[in-house]
Amino acid sequence: MPKVKTHQGLRKRIKTTGTGKLRRGKQGGAHLKEAKTLRQRRSLRVSIAVAPADTDRIEKLLPYNKK
């Protein structure tokens, strides 16, 4: 049986916690930061948990993700 390929774009965007939960960065923090308030920019630094509805789909795209 052939190896399953990891989705390279998703691999760069998702991190796994020690307990196996998936974390992702918030959208909107890549550019145009001057227009955002300091409070908005601070909140964009924090990573958040992936929604439960998306975890099954993401785990299929990351077959060798450490759990």
Give an overview of the whole structure:
About 30% of the residues lie in helices and about 10% in strands. The chain is α+β, with helices and mostly antiparallel strands. It has one domain (about 10-60): Factor Xa Inhibitor, CATH 4.10.410. A 3-stranded antiparallel beta sheet has the order 1-2-3, with no helix packed on it.
Structural features:
3 helices, three-stranded antiparallel sheet, Factor Xa Inhibitor, alpha+beta, about 70 residues, 3 strands
What are the SSEs and their pairings?
Elements: H1 8-11, E1 14-16, E2 22-24, H2 38-44, E3 48-49, H3 52-61
Antiparallel strand pairs: 1-2, 2-3
| Name of the level-1 CATH class | Few Secondary Structures
Strand content: 5-15%
SSE pattern, N- to C-terminal: HEEHEH
Question: How large, in whole angstroms, is the Cα Rg?
Answer: 15 Å
Distance between the termini: 22 Å
Give the tally of structural domains.
Answer: 1
Can I get a quick summary?
The chain is an alpha+beta fold and 67 residues long. The chain has one domain (8-61): Irregular (Factor Xa Inhibitor), CATH 4.10.410.60. 31% of the residues lie in helices and 12% in strands.
